[in-house]
């Protein structure tokens, strides 16, 4: 008996996945989940509250039902449980996901439209293309985009940041410097879980007000301060440990190695560098999220790319770290630690 042949189902689903993605992103942008968290509503009432044109409103809302993001009971729309928890702007957990989706909608979606050109030419398609600034200087020059970007970094990193606060042996250290801190969530989570620590968040000066606001909201302004600068040209702050959360993938190989060398030079004996990213598996065939993230870095930066734990440990050894190890955090994220001996 012959075996059934391949079907196009998986390819079709993958090729058309952008439709579902953009439907979700538009729903977040329009505030669908926030409105329904206030009060469930039927189609005409909800459309009126959202300002939707009647031509596409029913298909839009029913698509969200079919995607499992909304429920419809007797003609009345309600949020699904996970959408209500994470996509209502008035709930705390929105900060851990909503900012990322907002950035995906306003920034990454358009950049991926030009992916074919990036693959053919090697050129990124980001904010720097319309200015003489590099990728991050251009992004940080726009206050609105900057705040959205920093919030999105919290969203993509928050779960891993909480894991780092538990998994790293922080009892061995007294001070920590979070390099490329964004809003500061990595440092915040580490200090909340380890009351003996004090720390500093280091980033370009424009990030300072957003960092300070976030730190104050978590009651850590006495233990966690901001230092503005460029970590490629300025001295690193003094600390027993340096953290780089979703940072090294932004840069080319030379700059990756430079940051690790500077960390080694600034650390005392026994100090640690803690790197985490969505690390590509050593065989480069399993962690699709990490490979897509690396592709994103190719599309939005001048030289950034993802890497494996084995590669990062080799760079740490080149920088002088005598002992290194790696371990899984959560989801697609893993950690690499180097100790200065």
Give me the secondary-structure topology:
Layout: H1 9-15, H2 17-30, H3 32-38, E1 41-42, H4 43-50, H5 54-66, E2 70-73, E3 76-79, H6 81-86, H7 98-112, H8 115-121, H9 135-140, H10 143-167, E4 175-179, H11 185-193, E5 198-203, H12 208-217, E6 224-228, E7 241-245, H13 253-266, E8 272-277, H14 288-300, H15 309-319, E9 323-328, E10 334-339
Parallel strand pairs: 4-5, 4-7, 5-6, 7-8
Antiparallel strand pairs: 1-3, 2-3, 8-10, 9-10
3D architecture notes:
- The chain is α/β, with parallel strands linked by helices and 341 residues long.
- The chain contains 15 helices and 10 strands.
- α13 packs across α15.
- The protein is globular, with a radius of gyration of 22 Å.
- The mean pLDDT is 92.
Keywords:
single chain, 341 residues, alpha/beta, 7-stranded mixed beta sheet, 3-stranded antiparallel beta sheet, globular
- Total number of beta strands: 10
Unreliable spans are: none
Percentage of residues in helical conformation: 40-55%
Rg over alpha carbons: 22 Å
The DSSP helix count reads 15
Give the end-to-end Cα distance, rounded to a whole number of Å.
Answer: 64 Å
Trace the largest sheet across and list its strands: 6-5-4-7-8-10-9
In brief:
The chain has 341 residues and is of the alpha/beta class. The protein contains 15 helices and 10 strands.
């Amino acid at each position: 008996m012959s075996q059934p042949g391949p079907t196009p189902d998986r390819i079709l689903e993958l090729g058309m996945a952008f439709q579902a993605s953009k439907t979700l992103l538009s729903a977040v942008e329009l505030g669908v989940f926030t409105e329904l968290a206030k009060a469930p509503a039927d189609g005409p009432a909800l459309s009126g509250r959202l300002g939707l044109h009647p031509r596409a409103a029913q298909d839009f809302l029913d698509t969200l039902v079919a995607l499992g993001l909304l429920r419809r009971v007797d003609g009345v729309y309600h949020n699904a449980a996970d959408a209500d928890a994470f996509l209502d702007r008035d709930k705390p957990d929105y900060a851990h996901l909503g900012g990322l989706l907002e950035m995906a909608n306003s920034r990454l979606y358009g950049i991926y439209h030009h992916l074919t050109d990036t693959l053919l030419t090697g050129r990124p398609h980001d904010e720097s293309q319309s200015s003489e600034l590099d990728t991050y200087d251009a992004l940080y020059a726009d206050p609105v985009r900057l705040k959205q970007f920093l919030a999105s970094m919290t969203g993509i990193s928050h779960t891993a940041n909480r894991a780092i606060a538990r998994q790293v042996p922080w009892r061995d250290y007294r001070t920590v410097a979070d390099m490329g801190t964004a809003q500061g969530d990595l440092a915040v989570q580490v200090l909340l879980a380890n009351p003996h620590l004090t720390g500093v968040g280091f980033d370009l000066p424009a990030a300072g007000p957003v960092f300070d606001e976030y730190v104050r909201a978590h009651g850590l302004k006495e233990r966690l301060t901001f230092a503005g600068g460029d970590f490629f040209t300025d001295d690193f702050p003094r600390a027993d440990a340096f953290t780089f959360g979703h940072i090294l993938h932004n840069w080319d190989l030379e700059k990756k190695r430079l940051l690790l060398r500077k960390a080694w030079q600034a650390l005392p004996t026994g100090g640690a560098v803690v790197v985490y990213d969505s690390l590509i598996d050593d065989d480069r065939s399993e962690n699709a999220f990490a490979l897509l993230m690396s592709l994103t870095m190719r599309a939005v930066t001048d030289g950034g790319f993802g890497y494996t734990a084995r590669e990062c440990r080799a760079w740490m050894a080149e920088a002088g770290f005598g002992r290194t190890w790696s371990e899984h955090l959560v989801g697609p994220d893993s950690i690499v630690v180097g100790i200065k001996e």
